Structure formats: C-alpha cells, structure tokens
C-alpha cells in the first residue's frame, strides 16, 4: 500500500473544506448559520461571500476556477457554482439568497396590457402609377422636332411635345383627299378613310383641316395628355419610331406613393388605414404623414420583405421620386388588447421553443420553475404571451441565463437540455451511436460520448468572419479527405484526417458570441474530432469510411449552421454503408463517391444545396 504524502493530505483537506463551504452556499446553511448571518452586518457578508466559491462555465462544466473571469475554452463569463442551489422538483431550481445576490437575479410580474409597437420602416418615394401618363406614337415615323429637351421638365396638358413625319400618314391623307370626291357616290370609302386617320390618333379638327385645305400635311404634332413632370425621355430628334413606341413618361407629382419595406415579423402590426410618419435626410426637422393603402400579398424572395404602400399629398413637390425616407408606424392591435406581455430579456430559446423561469411564490426560498411558453408578436422590448403563463406570475428578467446555467449544471431541465438529466455533448446518429462505436470514440478522444439528438440544429447562425474563415480552412482539408476515399487511398485518408483533427482543434470558439452557437459548435467539434481521430488511427478502408459517414454528417451540420462562403452540395449514395445510405459534401455537382471508390465513383445524387 502506497504512503499518502503530506501534499496529498493537504489537498484532501482543502477539498473537504471547499465542499463544506459549497454545501452551505447551495442549501443555505443550517438554521444556526442563518441566525448568525442575520446578526452580521452587510459589510461582513460582503467580505465572506467570495470565500471558497468555485466558478465554472455554463458551456464547459469541467472548468473550475477560484474566482470570476472568462472561460479559457470559449471566452464566456464564468458563473459561481454557488448559483446552483438546492434542486426541488423535476423542472425547478432553488437558490440561496446569497446566490441570488451574486447572480443579480431580478423578476417581473406578468400583467395584462394592450401592447403598442413602433415599427421602423425604411422606404422610398415613388410616383403614383395611376398619375403617370405614357406618351406613345400611334403611327410609325421619324421625329423631326422634339420640344421636350430634358427629364424633369414641366409640361401642361395640351402642350406640343414632338413633331413627326410619317410616310404611312401621308399616304392615308392622300386616300382621304381622294375619298372626298366620292363622298356622295361611295360614302363607305370616305368613312373608311376618316376612321383610318382617327385610329392613328388624329383629332376631328386635324382631319377637317386636311379636307378644308385639300393639301397633305407632312409633319404631325403629338400633344401632352396631362400636366406634370417628365420623368423619362426615351427618344431623341431624328429617331425612327414604330407604332406604339413610348416617347415620354409624364407624372403628376402632386400626390406620390411612399413604398416601405416591412419584414415578416412586422406585418402583423400593419393594416390598411394606419398612419406612417416619415422624414427625409434632405429635409431635416420636417415630418410627413402618409396613409397605408396597400400591403403587398407576396414576400420578396431576395429581400424577405413585403412592400407597404402609402399615399401622401405633395403639393409643393418637395418629395421627389426615389428619395429615401425613414418611417415609424405606431400600432396597437385590437385583437391583442388585454394580452399578457413579458420583457424580451426573460425569454430563452431552445431552438424551436421559448422558455422562461417562473418564480414559485409559495416557497420561502427563491425557487424557479423551467416553463415553455407560446410567444405571440414582438412588441418593442416585449413579447406577447399566448400560452404558458398566467397574470400575476413572476418571471426572471435579469440573470435568467445564470439561472438556466445553474439548472444545467444540476442536471435539471434547461435551455440546452430540455429533457433534464446529465448534461450531454454527443448526439444520436445512426449506428455510429452503438455501444461499440461509442467505446471506440471514448478510447480515441479520452472523454465519454453521450447521446443527445441535435438534429434540430437548423437555423443559420450569424458568426464572426474570422470564425467562418477558420471553418473554411478545415473544410478544405475535409475535401482532401473526401477525395482520398474516392481514390480508395487509405494512407492519404489517414493523413488528411490527422490534418483535419488539428485544424478543427485550432478553431477559436471565443469568436462565437451567442450561447446557441457555442452549444452547437461544442457538439459538432467533438464529434468531428472523434471521427477524424478514429480515421487517422486505422488503415482499414472500410472502418475509415464508417467513421467518415459520421464525420460528414456533422460537417454538413457545421456548414449549414455557420457557412463557409461557398456553395456546397450535399450528395447522397443509397448503397453506401451496406445499403444504409450516407452523405458527403462537395464543391462540384459532379459525383465522386467516397464510399464506393473507383468501382462505382459516379453512384449518388445531390440531396441539398447549401448556400
């Protein structure tokens, strides 16, 4: 039996003391301790509340530090283990008063309200399409004289715009003059000649002048049909015109449209008749008011917005087409009157569900219940609650993530572990989660692999460019690994897997700035690293390809979640892995199957395209 040296004994005593202190913090101490604490001054409490505390990371519970700081793995702010108090029920966590102060927990009483939302709408001034006149040529010809010289010129109704020479019109006049002599004997011939000129937009007065003078008129004038501003000039002098060709566009700008871009989340708050106040950078301090007259029923697939059309009088012409404006619509929906509302800061997202922590008001000690809620529309800095809460209940609004982290560390239901139980980092993916496969991963990575289904990781995360660049470097090595399998080269595959393992381990998780992105990348990175390590440690091609299937599934998830600044094709072979099927990633639409190798290199199909 080995002798226990003095150093080991001191360490054991230290752990024992730390455990006693943590026990007091977790469970609030004995009644005697509570009495003593009440007798102490606030200064004494402050001086002792940091003693013996252990600080950890909500994402990496293996981190243990003596004081506050940042996680050395992901850079997140450390939290005290003391904030994880006594666990009460399946979905509840109880905290001590000291832990409440440390975590700076604040609550909000849920109440009925009529939410008001200010919708900010960027927009652009446009001419009212109903007040735009297109001046066209009703007959073919050549422009002899153009009286409108520039865009923006003001014209009046009946003003001469252009003079046109038309050989066809000259011929039609000759036919009219000839038909005049047959007016009595062949009136239908005369009427046909008159109607032909009218179809070419000649007025009764012009036709009467031709008959009266008995001479052919070679140039004909085109007149404006409305007063307004020339917003488009499509021809120049000397141009030849075809029948129906547009010469000018004239708009009456005394009333204009203002077209605003509304995001999908804002549409529930906008309805016809609403007033939108807006301003333009060219007129600081001046505010205009327009009225919503139309909401586009179709979302633009590129911009993901719907156009909201408003109308506004513009007698002075200060609002000019294509001028940018900023609008504010203050909305109060009648259907949401007397609805329950909570601050945005109280909401945690699990991916598809929204979660709050509700204070149990029946307990003496601060106790919080994990509860999923149904969210309605966003209203400024609040959310409307459609289900899951009742008026009068209290929800955590400040320190909510710390409460969730304490629940997670205690094995209770939490944002990242909705089912409760031990916090896991793996996932469920086909037969790679069989006991043998898990044991192999544990042996290669030095850490136990557990099963948490992260198949619901679907939402693209906005991440720093540096993180995306680092992921792209790893993706390039992944492509080399894929090519090695397509060429049936086990040695190159092992080398590429070793490079991939190193590249993935060097990706800086501290560049991720959201808990959701942290959680996703932690899961994916461990699985990719485990599979790459397994591939590098064997030269048997079939075994390597089994690990590659697992690796590809996770790399696909990484590319979908974070992006690599390239169009990536997810390809699938139904015959791979003994007809169980498997996917891989490629930058080319051409199939080069890494599972079947050169024997069936073109077997497969494109299953998905990742932008």
Structural overview:
The chain is an alpha+beta fold. The protein is about 30% helix and about 25% strand.
How do the helices and strands line up, and which of them pair or pack?
Layout: H1 6-27, H2 31-39, H3 42-48, E1 55-56, E2 79-80, E3 92-94, H4 97-103, E4 106-109, E5 111-113, E6 117-127, E7 132-136, E8 141-146, E9 154-155, E10 160-165, H5 167-180, H6 187-199, H7 204-213, E11 219-223, E12 228-233, E13 240-241, E14 246-251, E15 255-263, E16 275-280, E17 288-295, E18 305-313, E19 324-331, E20 339-343, E21 348-349, E22 354-359, E23 367-379, E24 382-387, E25 394-398, H8 400-409, H9 435-445, H10 465-486, H11 490-505, H12 515-536, H13 541-562, E26 568-573, H14 576-579, E27 582-586, E28 605-610
Antiparallel strand pairs: 1-2, 3-23, 4-25, 5-20, 6-15, 6-19, 7-14, 8-10, 8-13, 9-12, 10-11, 12-14, 15-18, 16-17, 16-19, 17-18, 20-24, 21-22, 22-23, 22-25, 23-24, 26-27, 26-28
Helix pairs in contact: 5-6, 9-12, 10-11, 10-13, 11-12, 12-13
What's the total number of strands? 28
What is the percent of helical residues?
25-40%
Biggest β-sheet, characterized?
A: 9 strands, antiparallel
* Unreliably modeled segments: 1-51, 82-87, 423-456
On the 0 to 100 scale, the average pLDDT is 77
Number of helices: 14
Taken as a percent bin, the fraction of beta residues is 25-35%
Separation of termini? Answer: 63 Å
Structural class: alpha+beta
Shape: elongated
The Cα radius of gyration reads: 38 Å
């Amino acid at each position: 039996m080995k002798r226990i040296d003095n150093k080991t004994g001191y360490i054991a005593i230290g752990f024992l003391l730390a455990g006693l202190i943590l026990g007091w913090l977790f469970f609030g101490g004995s009644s005697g301790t509570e009495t003593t604490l009440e007798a102490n001054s606030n200064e004494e409490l402050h001086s002792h509340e940091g003693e013996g505390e252990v600080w950890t990371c909500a994402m990496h519970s293996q981190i243990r530090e003596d004081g506050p700081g940042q996680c050395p793995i992901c850079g997140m702010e450390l939290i005290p283990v003391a904030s994880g108090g006594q666990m009460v029920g399946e979905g509840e966590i109880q905290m001590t008063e000291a832990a409440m102060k440390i975590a700076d927990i604040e609550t909000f009483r849920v109440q009925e309200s009529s939410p008001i939302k200010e919708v900010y709408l960027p927009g652009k001034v446009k001419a009212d399409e109903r007040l735009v006149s297109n001046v066209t040529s009703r007959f073919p010809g050549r422009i002899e004289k153009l009286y409108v010289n520039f865009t923006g010129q003001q014209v009046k109704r009946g003003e001469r715009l252009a003079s046109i020479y038309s050989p066809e019109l000259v011929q039609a006049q000759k036919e009219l003059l000839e038909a005049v002599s047959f007016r009595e004997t062949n009136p239908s011939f005369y009427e046909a000649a008159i109607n032909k000129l009218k179809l070419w937009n000649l007025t009764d007065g012009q036709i009467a002048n031709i008959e009266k003078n008995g001479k052919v008129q070679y140039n004909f004038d085109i007149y404006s049909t409305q007063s307004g501003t020339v917003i488009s000039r499509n021809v120049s002098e000397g141009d030849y015109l075809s029948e129906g060709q547009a010469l000018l566009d004239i708009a009456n700008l005394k009333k204009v449209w203002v077209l605003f871009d509304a995001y999908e989340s804002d549409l529930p708050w906008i309805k016809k008749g609403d007033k939108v106040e807006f301003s333009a950078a060219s007129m600081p301090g001046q505010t205009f008011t327009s009225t919503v007259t139309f909401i586009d029923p179709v979302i633009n697939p590129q911009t993901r917005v719907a156009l909201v059309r408003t109308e506004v009088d513009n007698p002075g012409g200060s609002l000019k087409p294509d001028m940018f404006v900023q609008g504010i619509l203050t909305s109060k929906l009648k259907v949401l009157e007397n609805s329950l509302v909570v601050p945005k800061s109280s909401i945690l997202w699990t991916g598809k569900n929204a979660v709050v922590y509700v204070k149990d008001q029946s307990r003496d000690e601060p106790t919080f219940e994990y509860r999923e809620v149904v969210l309605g529309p966003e209203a400024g800095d609040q959310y409307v609650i459609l289900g899951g809460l009742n008026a009068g209940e209290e929800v955590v609004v400040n320190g909510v993530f710390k409460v969730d982290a304490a629940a997670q560390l205690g094995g209770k239901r939490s944002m990242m572990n909705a089912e409760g139980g031990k916090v896991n980092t793996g996932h469920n993916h086909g037969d790679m989660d069989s006991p043998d496969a898990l044991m192999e991963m544990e042996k290669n990575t030095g850490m136990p692999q557990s099963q948490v289904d992260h198949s619901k990781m679907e939402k693209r995360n906005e991440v720093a460019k540096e993180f995306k660049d680092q992921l792209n470097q790893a993706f390039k090595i992944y492509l080399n690994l894929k090519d090695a399998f397509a060429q049936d080269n086990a040695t190159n595959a092992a080398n590429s897997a070793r490079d991939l393992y190193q590249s993935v381990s060097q990706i800086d998780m501290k560049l991720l700035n959201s808990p959701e992105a942290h959680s996703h990348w932690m899961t994916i990175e461990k699985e990719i690293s485990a599979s790459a390590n397994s591939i590098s440690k064997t030269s048997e091609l079939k075994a390597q390809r089994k690990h590659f299937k697992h690796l590809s599934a996770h790399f696909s998830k990484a590319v979908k979640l974070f992006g690599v600044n390239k169009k990536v094709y997810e390809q699938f072979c139904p015959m791979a892995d003994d007809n169980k099927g498997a996917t891989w990633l490629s930058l080319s639409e051409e199939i080069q199957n890494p599972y079947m190798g050169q024997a069936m290199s073109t077997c497969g199909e494109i299953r998905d395209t990742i932008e």
